[in-house]
TrEMBL record:
Pfam families: SH3BP5. One of its GO terms (cellular component) is cytoplasm. This is Putative btk-associated sh3-domain binding protein sab. Residues 221-280 are annotated as: Disordered. It comes from the Eukaryota.
Amino acid sequence: STELDPRIQIELENLNTATDDINKLEIELEEANSTFRILMNESTRRLKLSSKKLGSCIEKARPYYEALEKAKVAQLECQAATLKYQRANEIHAAAKETVALAEQRFMSNSHEWQFDNAWQEMLNHATIKVMDAEKQKAESGAEHQKKAKVFEEAEKKVQQLEERYHRSIQKSRPYFDEKQLCQEQLEAQKGRIQQLEQQIQSAKTAYSTALRNLEKISEEIHQQRGDLSQAAPSGPREPGVGAELTNIVPAASSAATNNGGGHHYHPHHNHHQHHHHHHH
């Protein structure tokens, strides 16, 4: 029989690996989704229980806890705006420095006329950069002021509510702590789910890449063999890619059919076999 192109073996292994990965990951994804649902139900149950136990103080305290959340967000946005403004200041300073250097070198070389055009060009460029940086600095400065004001207002509101509903806030704290914890758990689980979904996506990509590569190799082989008499060795089985695929891959994929998720990963691309030509 004809020597098998070594690249075929590699791509078949890639295909098998991808199939196994997809099947494994889809089972994990199902489990992760069901864990999410369990957490969700459990959280709802615990919070209902807690709210029954603690009663009306929860609703009285709610505006405070909501204001607290808003203030946290406002603080983060304010910090981000501060960083952006600092960065704009640095860029502006660097741009001014560049202009100063360019002018200095321009002056010291002005007796050599061939410098004129190049330096003029550079100076113009650097000056435009300074103007851009000034604009950025003004914009980010204004934005920073705005965010700082929002944060200040949010803090003030938190303090007012804290003074007004002090007792309810203290009494309802277990409920809101529990709520915070539940939210964090659910967020974390959601992150896990998204991560698995991305991994499945890249395993599927690896799968179709391997399949496409096999098709390319197959076509190349058929073109090379086009004029040769050993295009199709005699014998019951032609050793083309198609035959390889039918023999090797489904063994790995058979697991796929059992979990419902991965069964469409059988390579149904056996049409390579039809490209073999018998030459007499």
